[in-house]
Amino acid sequence: MTSKKPGPVLPTKDELLAFIAAHGGKAGTREIARAWGLKNADRAILKSLLRELADAGQIERRKKKLHHAGTLPNTVLADVTGRDADGELIAVPTDWDEEENGPPPKIRLHVPRRAKPGEIPGVGDRALLRTEEVEEEDGIRHRGRAIKVLDRTKHRALGVFRTLPDGGGRLVSVDKKGLGRELTIRPGDTLDAVEGDLVAVDVQKHGRFGTTVAKVKERLGSLSSERAVSLIAIHAHGIPHVFSKDVLAEAESAKPATLDHREDWREVPFVTIDPADAKDHDDAVFARTDSDPKNPGGFVIDVAIADVAAYIRPGTAMDREALTRGNSVYFPDRVVPMLPERISNDLCSLRPAEDRPALVARMVIGADGVKRSHTFHRVLMRSIARLHYAQAQAAVDGHPDETTAPLMALVLTPLYDAYAALKKARDERSPLDLELPERKILLKPDFTVDRVISPQRLDAHRLIEEFMILANVAAAETLERAKTPLIYRVHDEPTIDKLSALREFLTTLDISLPKAGALRPAQFNTILARVKGRDSEALVNEVVLRSQAQAEYASENYGHFGLNLRRYAHFTSPIRRYADLIVHRALVSACKLGRDGLPDGADIVSLGEIAARISGAERRAMAAERETVDRLIAHHLADRIGATFQGRVAGVTRSGLFVKLDDTGADGFVPAATLGRDYYRYEETHHAMVGDATGESWRLGDRVTVKLVEAAPVAGALRFEILSEGRIETRRGTRGRDKPHRSAAASKRHPAAQRTSRTSRKR
Q: Does some domain include residue 319?
């Protein structure tokens, strides 16, 4: 009788943590199971153990791999902030949301002995780092090595010039991350700057008594003009906005593309559909019913994208500049383009009746909207019309104009019919469907704010969006099939901590969120549908949005949670995004479409470094755009001190409330000390400030009336005073009794409220 072979021994939790740490983010459930020889039945137990570790906050899942909680990607953009007691450099991630994720993890830099001086970062520099998790020492468990130093410390500051009675002046910095104090400018160093000028200065030296002397190097304009406002953001965030002579010369020498090595698609009736004020047009579309009898009710969709790779070749001056910029940046008064206008607004803009080179994704879909097949083609095309969204929508709604009337049967009707099919597939896929109104600032000819509008969301917008998503998926699938490295657009699922916080919040609204199993966007959509039309709709949409991870670029795929797609890559905007240019080059290589493909040596590692850089550039652009809007609206409201506005509570913190105004979308702050005659505590689970004595509360999403008491245009800051009363509810007392909330008026008469008000103002 043979003895039974002993089965595998399951790892302990400590062994699991040690294994995950030792493999530096390369360990997933499959790798752990293989290491311990676990079969199907044992894998279920393993997953349960890992779930317990995740619930305890000891590990987290990222890119389908397991990490110690708080660990970093293998490649990260970081700022060198100082040195430790042994003199070793310490860095922190450049893009880290402390409000959501807590303090940033520290990285101890390792400098190789043979490193050249130019490869060694210094304090204040920004660098691309290769990181790994190591045994914790002095609270630091990440070690990094500089791949490339991107930005050396700049001794230049930006601010508003203020004149002094005795000559010269002082600089009030507008950069929150700047020097944080005033700089003295001597009489001979003002460059004739006058009161209120926005200036850039070089920091010269530190004086004997702690004063810092600066010299004006550039006058950027007066802050009386809103056009100077975007310059603040451009300089504060270090956004490159002036093309070098080499870049411009390269752009001007570019020649229009010909039919050489291209298919002739000039007879295909493509149209562009863009915003009415668009200056460049990098995508065109066409659709027709599929004549294949095996695909009844199906469509053939062509998405043509400007062939930027034909003009921007790897290693050229334009390519280096495009990588540095990462993307175009859009302000209300200007655009800082990724590429020179000769390329973006001329040679690569798909203008009507002009021959233009393009990469075309031809996709066949069924009547259910599901993609059956696709191919990529390098073509010479000719758009037959330039339409804007409202114009296309009006035509389909029965109000064509002289441009759209001739296009109805041939172009517009098939486009909308194909979109109707795609919408079926989209509804079945059920991507995250948040209702987040967009706001757009309209300027007067003098660049001052005219008004703020919320553009109507039309089917024309959704049509183009779905066509572009389909083409992006096709690009990712083609490159994966060809085993060609690429840059993915990825969006991770929400973290365990954020889901726990969301679950607790939804419980206060009697809405449940499953604790076990994989969470999909459809479950969020069910929650959003439940609150649609209710007072809590805006609140729930906002809280669900805050629970989501931030999308980014990566050379390794872990899917796109928000779109509910397994693979996704940006292909459709190479004029304004460097990631799309990489994907175009990869397609040229994979489909053997010419000599403009990926350079030799392009692999997951090198593309991972590029992905980290352009993800940082994207966040930089978003911050600059947001701050510029804040400053413009603060300028607009500066002469309305004392005016009252309607709005919603858009954020709740320990220090007070953030209120977003209905008419302009402006954000302002209400300090906790000014809320009322009570001491208000921050209740994180409820996203609320609640009075100790009265129970009066203000909660995220609440409607409020506020008075504007202060506007600081340079900082883009507004301060409000709450005029409306807080919500009146019952709350659970410390001994389990329900206590009534008092009204704001009653709270002012309540002795306990009067006693606590002085304390709240001190805090």
A: yes
